[in-house]
Design brief:
The protein has 488 residues and is α/β, with parallel strands linked by helices. The protein is built from 16 helices and 17 strands. The two termini are 37 Å apart. The chain folds into three domains: 255 residues, Rossmann fold; 147 residues, Isoleucyl-tRNA Synthetase, Domain 1 (Orthogonal Bundle); 47 residues. The radius of gyration is 27 Å and the shape is elongated. About 1% of the residues have low confidence. The strands form six sheets. A four-stranded parallel β-sheet has the order 4-3-11-12, with helices on both faces. Strands 7-8-9-10 form a four-stranded antiparallel β-sheet. It has a three-stranded mixed β-sheet with strand order 14-13-15, with helices on one face. It binds one RNA strand of 74 nucleotides through helix 1, strand 5, helix 8, strand 14 and strand 15.
RNA sequence: GGUCUUGUGGCCGAGUGGCUAGGCACCAGUCUGCAAAACUGUGUACAGCGGUUCGAAUCCGCUCGAGACCUCCA
């Protein structure tokens, strides 16, 4: 479809380098991204990862790939707390909110779907749930046991890291060495069923207070944290697919253990390219529940968080996030958000000018080169910040054309216009010019501005300024240009 | 302690060894009834020290600082 199709480079966490992207099957891409655990409402930091992978998904689509994008929903699973004890976080939330586990999951899933709509995320091809794939998880565990990489103790099943590392390399993704892990035997207490510190649960025997319990060949229990991703990625994308993504904090142990499970069960690394999105910071520190420095995606749109003194539109937030590379940290501050808000509005204004430009027989600048720079930026490991810098170059040109200082031909204008739409709305997922389309307000504004124009023609500045100031107080900005007065 | 990332002008943030990143803010000017917007011009930025090189923000070493993971986390 696109001539820029074959030039994409992706930073692969496995190699630590940018690599030419060559899908396993021509023109088709399989992508799996670790989704949310629905025991609470996702915070802004969680959303950053999903927004980044949404951008990645969107660009792959623009390049003409047929993409199968799978993002799971974790609605079950045994998780260990800081003391090393088994603890079901969903069950815990359920007890605290006096609901059943399924109610908790459903409640936060509804919320999550709403957030996806607010932040303009494209729905993935499939959003499979862990609880819907218990049988597949059990089958994987059985395979791993049969291959000799897991053992059963008291109704639980553990992955045998030492056995595994005789044949495969444990730590290939995170750079950890099994020998070094061995030195950290401090937390291995006498009651622990694990043979080795780094062994991890594939299946965990049920506790009496567990709210969700499933039957298995090893007795009633819950699946381990990592096995659901192995089961679901295999089911929908096969044993080996193109891209596996997630937040940086999942690199170890979650993704490392996924690799071990996949190798242990199917003999291969699940993904060719591993991608990790960086964290969202607040005042230099990772946003997290435990630090309490988090806010909810809805709060910032409503302006109800104490961290910021005004609300920001979801598109401004998205724009702000896109100004930082997905592999970089990003700090949320009022100053940075205000700058993004103004910048986005400048870009929007320029785009909305496109329809009003007058065309010439020739263009005074190279439109093809400009458009090409959009692809170049994105082909370099999805460099959205550079793309935005190039979009601002386009905005500058549009303004100059509008001022009669540059010219553009009809064909070039069509090309530029089409590609701005592709990159701003299709790739970055930003919505432009949706604010002043209120059908009732529009005729009122036309009338008000007509009255003001009459006052101006009569040099009645008192009246015209009163109208302008009054509108400003109501949040409507009036701009006088050569072509007439506009408002927003 | 181990593994890894990182330190860019007032703020945010790209950066392939040599060619203006970009945005916001600031200053001056053009335009305008005034404003806003738009346009133009203006910034001796690359933590510190040393090394490689004709040339380093970019490569190497050391020092200092920051962060992530090693326990649930996007």
């Amino acid at each position: 479809m696109s001539s820029h199709h074959g030039n994409l480079k992706i930073y692969n966490s496995l190699s630590g380098q940018k690599e030419k992207f060559e899908p396993l099957h021509e023109n088709r891409v399989g992508m799996y991204v670790c989704g949310p655990t629905l025991y609470s409402e996702p915070h802004m930091g969680n959303m950053r990862t999903f927004i980044n992978f949404d951008m990645i998904y969107r660009y792959l689509l623009v390049l003409g790939y047929q993409v199968k994008y799978v993002r799971n929903i974790t609605d079950a699973g045994h998780i260990t707390n800081s003391l090393g004890e088994a603890e079901d976080s969903i069950g815990k939330a359920a007890r605290m909110e006096q609901m059943q586990s399924l109610e908790i999951v459903y409640k936060y899933n509804v919320k999550f779907q709403e957030l996806q709509r607010i932040y303009n995320l494209l729905p993935p091809s499939i959003e499979p749930t862990a609880t819907g794939h218990i049988q597949e998880q059990i089958e994987h565990i059985e395979k791993i046991i049969n291959n000799g990489f897991a053992y059963v103790v008291n109704g639980s099943v553990y992955f045998d890291v030492k056995k595994y590392s005789e044949k495969f390399e444990y730590g290939i993704l995170s750079g950890r060495k099994v020998d070094e892990l061995a030195e950290e035997t401090r937390t291995l207490n006498a009651q622990d069923e694990k043979r080795f510190f780094a062994d991890f649960a594939l299946w965990k025997k049920a506790n009496p207070e567990d709210m969700q319990i499933w039957r298995s060949p090893w007795g009633d229990g819950n699946p381990g944290w990592h096995i659901e991703c192995t089961a679901m990625s295999t089911k929908y994308l096969g044993p080996h697919f193109d891209i596996h993504g997630g937040g940086m904090d999942l690199k170890f142990p979650h993704h490392e253990d996924e690799i071990a499970q996949n190798c242990g069960s199917l003999g291969c690394n699940p993904a060719k390219y591993w991608m990790h999105a960086n964290m969202l910071n607040v005042n230099g520190q990772k946003m997290s529940k435990s630090l309490g420095n988090y806010f909810l995606p809805q709060e910032i749109v409503e302006g109800s968080t104490e961290l910021f003194d005004k609300p920001y539109s979801p598109d401004v937030i998205r724009f702000f996030m896109m100004q930082a590379h997905y592999r970089s940290n990003l700090d949320f501050t009022s100053d940075a958000l205000n700058a993004a808000e103004k910048g986005f509005s400048r870009l929007s204004d320029a785009v909305m000018l496109l329809d009003k430009l007058t065309v010439a027989t020739n263009s005074s600048f190279n439109v093809g080169e400009l458009v090409s720079s959009f692809y170049t930026a994105m082909n370099d490991d999805f460099n959205a910040p550079t793309l935005i810098a190039n979009l601002f170059e386009a905005a500058k040109k549009i303004n100059l054309i509008n001022d009669g200082k540059e010219t553009i031909s009809k064909d070039d204008l069509n090309i530029l216009s089409a590609h701005l739409t592709i990159f701003i709305s299709d790739v970055l997922g930003l919505r432009i010019g949706t604010s002043n389309s209120d059908s009732k307000l529009s005729p009122v504004m036309d009338l008000v501005l007509e009255l003001r124009q009459q006052a101006r023609e009569n040099k009645d500045w008192t009246t015209s300024d009163k109208i302008r100031d009054g509108l400003a107080a109501a949040g409507i900005v009036v701009k006088d240009t050569k072509e007439g007065t506009s408002w927003s």
